[in-house]
Write a structure and sequence with these properties.
Helix content: 40-55%
Distance between the termini: 83 Å
Length: 286
């Protein structure tokens, strides 16, 4: 009996030493770091947002999860403190977001441009015009059907900027506010094509949908139609819960050569032309 008792004692001693060792050797798995991004819809629909997120996660292990909304709505989402970063394209709204203390700083990421699209019949006779505001004035004078997102998105803000330069406040039966404009540029363009109307649209959306629509680019290459896309980290001084260190790691990577090369080449293989152009200080050198 004594011998068995001794063996039992040794066994218990071994277990008591082993259990703490096992506990130390196998800590609970750490939750993966995650950045919450509120992004304008166009670059998501084009696929560039997903491509950049995937490359960053592969390099760092940090997951980026995005929610798409028009620029105005994306900024409102970020003002709740539930997002770490915004990707938007409406300078006046961006500057207000920073000035009000919600964002830290605007970082240039990429750009493309807007174009004036319309039916081949072109009832307003704007094809080939070089001045976007003059083209919209001609559309208004002809009272030709024009579709707007009407949702304070970056696309809508740009459209209003061009109307303002034309000295016109568009209204009337010819100026149609698309009821589902907040769903993005792709649904808006599909609806405009269905109506064979005019609209202002970013070139990336047009390129990705070109094979599905009959609308044509009628006016392009006016400086007022340039579309600059910007990053703004949410301010950790206002929202201490944001993942600021990881966000800045993402921003710095997006500004760097690897990400800017992804932007420069994105879409070339599928569409024969890029959808966006690099615009960070590093990207401008490429």
């Amino acid at each position: 009996m004594v011998k068995h008792h001794g063996i039992t004692m040794l066994f218990c001693l071994a277990i008591s030493v082993l259990i703490p060792t096992l506990l130390i050797a196998e800590p609970a798995a750490a939750q993966p770091k995650k950045i919450m991004l509120a992004s304008t819809i166009g670059p998501i629909d084009a696929g560039i947002v997903g491509a950049l997120e995937e490359a960053f996660t592969k390099k760092t292990g940090i997951v980026v999860e995005h929610t798409g909304a028009g620029t105005g709505k994306a900024i409102q989402l970020a003002e709740t403190g539930k997002f770490d970063l915004v990707l938007v394209h409406a300078k006046a709204l961006e500057e207000k977001f920073v000035a009000d203390g919600f964002g830290t700083k605007r970082y240039d990421l990429m750009y493309n441009d807007f174009v004036v699209l319309g039916p081949a019949a072109d009832p307003a006779k704007i094809k080939g015009m070089k001045d976007g505001s003059a083209a919209l004035k001609a559309i208004a004078q002809a009272q030709a059907l024009f579709v707007t997102r009407g949702d304070k998105s970056g696309t809508h803000v740009k459209e209003l900027e061009v109307w303002k330069k034309a000295g016109i406040e568009p209204q009337g039966a010819w100026y149609h506010v698309y009821e589902q404009g907040s769903k993005g540029n792709a649904p808006t363009l599909a609806f405009t094509n269905e109506k064979q109307a005019y609209t202002i649209m970013d070139r990336a959306t047009y390129i990705t949908m070109k094979s599905q629509i009959t609308l044509q680019i009628l006016v392009e290459r006016d400086d007022i139609l340039l579309n600059y896309i910007t990053l703004i980290p949410v301010n950790p001084a206002k929202f201490p819960q944001v993942h600021h260190a990881e966000t800045m790691q993402f921003v710095e990577w997006l500004q760097g050569k690897d990400a800017q090369m992804i932007i420069r080449n994105f879409g070339k293989d599928k569409y024969g032309e890029p959808l966006f152009f690099p615009n960070s200080p590093e990207g401008k050198k490429l």
